[in-house]
Write a structure and sequence with these properties.
Number of helices: 12
Radius of gyration: 28 Å
Strand order of the largest sheet: 16-15-14-28-29-30
Shape: globular
Largest sheet: 6 strands, mixed
Strand content: 25-35%
Low-confidence stretches: 7-11
Mean pLDDT: 93
Oligomer: single chain
Number of strands: 30
Distance between the termini: 48 Å
Length: 643
């Protein structure tokens, strides 16, 4: 940070000789004399991040940074050029609460934080050439905060070899700081980052993005910009200086989505809001009940905002990043060409809920028994945040994108989707089917009458057909038929027909992959806090044969009169029977247990994994190391070729 000087005008007396009749007198005349004095930095003001890169084109790239003050002047300096054409916006939902961890600050209640986003465009760039850049922001006191110097470049040319980091699920989890540091130490600074969702835990909590101070639970930017030790002095890893040099392409996961936004209500918390989304179609039902009060003039914008605030939103996530927004849903899903790679980011995410079927709480499978007549307290199972079936806007957009020349001519075609499309993890069940809600009514003999309704519903259908049944309901259940897996039925055939090379996902915090035809699936999100791989090997040395720890669900499906059919919920393996690919070099699971055979996954709370797409060779390479051992070597354990 450079020292600052400010010119101040100081009034000083000047003695001059003046004539008055026959006498000469001395007269003092005040004059302004500029004096340089140091500008004192306001200790409350900070740059919250280093600059990072977004939206690369053939001759430009956007630079974004954050401060906790609005400022009076902001500049981007790059190569021999500079610009003061900087767009500054205030993020409106950056908050903290009693669950936040910020050094020196305790939050007793939900508190809004000042977070300002600055974005400028470096133009006139030449493909294949990197230039130095830095940014500065001047606060109201005249003090200029300057970043360090980094490098930027536009999108690469076709044929330019790149190394692209494939990652996901940073989510304040253990090992991520070590993971990204080892990426840079092993392969150098990546040319881009493809991030398949779950950036943080609670996206409206500012500290999870910028300055969370928890042991081995880093904020997003410190981990991917190499500054974790600033918040946890003495920690053995600092993260990787990556985003300052490499543009990030992200996709929406379940942890990018907040639930109902009602901060004026008693008991509101960030964790509570995150776990409290409801479908937008049900928010329309709720809106009609209060429309006369909250929107007496019938303003369309007020209605839309009320429904968004009472269903779910990814506002903070989209406020932080810049992605292409030329699709029907803006930045929610998009496509981008980056050198030899055509990137498609889909919105494939849904709320996560527990496995329990006891009725004590809302879960994947039931509503809480005590709330059956109060749907405003429901969870609606694991409903999809966005449709992607063959009748949806997202599917039509996907078909249109795949018909474009840029897509068809791309050397590598990569799709990012966060959640549950394949794999061995706990979270691949239920499959990505629209929930079928069962309204159960039980008579005096114990006989059940069941009415079924497939999501999404309309407000009219709910009001006319569902609501009248609730007074006599004995249970609300949710079914997810294996045969109605939207990804398997609609998306996978489309990707195969259009020669997609790679589907990059996250969500289960493990490494595993599979191949269907020429299409490769990869989850490489094992950066600690793995949720387990459910798999039975032929030798019997590794046996984890039942997903999840909620025995009551598995007791039910194995009972004499199950409420759920176990054929729809395979307890282990890929739910749709895809054959998992084995590591091509060695199985890292040997480090967990020397008696394990070669296993087609890495699931560990000790080992850490990252994957690199090398466009020069067309290979995807995965590396493993043990962050608990500071001398641990980073070792290649798997590689496979695209095309």
């Amino acid at each position: 940070m450079r020292s600052q000087l400010r010119l101040l005008s100081v009034i000083c007396p000047l003695i001059v000789m003046a004539g008055c009749d026959d006498e000469t007198v001395e007269v003092e005349v005040p004059v302004e004399v500029p004096v340089e004095v140091p500008v004192t930095v306001n200790p409350e003001h900070k740059m919250l991040t280093d600059p990072f890169l977004q939206l690369p084109t053939e001759n430009s790239v956007n630079v974004v940074w954050f401060t906790n003050f609005e400022g009076t002047a902001h500049e981007l300096h790059y190569g021999d050029s500079s610009t003061t054409d900087v767009t500054t916006t205030a993020l409106t939902r950056m908050m903290e609460d009693a669950s936040s961890s910020v050094t020196g600050v305790t939050y007793e209640e939900v508190t809004y934080r000042n977070v300002y986003r600055h974005e400028a465009t470096a133009t006139g760039l030449t493909q294949g050439e990197r230039v130095n850049y830095h940014v500065s922001s001047t606060d109201d006191d005249g003090f200029a905060f300057n970043s360090e110097q980094f490098t930027l470049a536009p999108a690469p040319t076709e044929g330019q070899a790149m190394k692209i980091l494939l990652t996901s699920d940073l989510q304040s989890k253990k090992n991520v700081v070590a993971n990204y540091q080892k990426v840079v130490e092993t392969v150098g600074t990546p040319d881009a980052v493809l991030f398949a969702g779950d950036f943080v835990n609670v996206p409206d909590r500012a500290s999870e993005w910028f300055d969370q101070a928890k042991d081995n639970a880093p904020a997003f930017f410190p981990a991917l910009q190499g500054h974790y030790q600033a918040y946890m002095p003495g920690f053995p890893y600092n993260g990787g200086e990556i985003l300052q040099h490499a543009p990030l392409f992200g996709t929406i996961g379940n942890h990018e989505v907040m639930g109902r936004y009602t901060p004026d209500e008693d008991g509101y918390s960030l964790n509570g809001s995150f776990n409290d989304p409801q479908p937008a179609w049900f928010a329309e039902v709720a809106y009609e009940e209060v429309a006369a009060t909250v929107n007496p003039t019938g303003d369309a914008d007020i209605k839309a905002q009320w429904i968004a605030d009472h269903s779910h939103n990814q506002q903070s996530f989209l406020d932080i990043f810049s992605f292409p927004e030329d699709g029907p849903a803006g930045e929610d899903y998009y496509a981008a060409k980056f050198g030899d790679v055509f990137i498609i980011s889909m919105n494939v995410s849904r709320i996560w809920r527990s496995w329990s079927v006891s009725g004590a709480n809302k879960s994947k499978f039931v509503e809480a028994t005590e709330s059956l007549t109060s749907p405003s307290d429901w969870g609606f199972g694991e409903f999809l945040f966005e449709r992607f079936d063959a009748e949806s806007d997202q599917y039509a957009w996907l078909e249109e994108v795949m018909a474009s020349d840029d897509f068809r001519n791309a050397k590598y075609k990569v799709v990012m989707a966060h959640q549950g499309v394949f794999g061995l993890g706990d979270n691949t069940l239920p499959v990505l089917a629209q929930p079928i809600m069962q309204v159960v009514q039980t008579d005096a003999t114990g006989a059940e009458a069941i009415e079924e309704f497939t999501f999404p519903l309309t407000a009219t259908h709910w009001t006319e057909n569902v609501a009248p049944l609730l007074e006599e309901a004995s249970e609300i259940r949710y079914q997810y038929p294996l045969a109605q897996d939207v990804w398997l039925n609609d998306i996978e055939p489309l990707l195969l027909d259009n020669d997609v090379d790679l589907v990059h996902i996250g969500h289960s915090h493990l490494w595993n992959r599979a191949q269907v035809g020429n299409l490769h699936y990869l989850e490489s999100s094992n950066v600690g806090n793995s949720y387990g791989a459910y798999y039975v090997d032929t030798s019997g040395e590794y046996t984890r044969d039942v997903r999840a720890s909620y025995a009551d669900f598995w007791d039910d499906v194995n009972s004499a009169s199950p409420r759920w059919d176990i054929t729809n919920y395979p307890p282990n393996g890929d739910p749709q029977g895809r054959v998992m690919s084995f590591p091509t070099v060695f199985s890292p699971m040997y480090a967990e247990n020397e008696s394990y055979p070669n296993l087609p996954f890495v699931t560990s709370n000790t080992l850490s994994v990252f994957s690199i797409l090398d466009t020069g060779s067309g290979r995807v390479q995965s590396y493993v190391f043990d962050p608990t051992d500071l001398e641990s070597e980073v070792t290649l354990f798997d590689e496979f070729s695209l095309n």
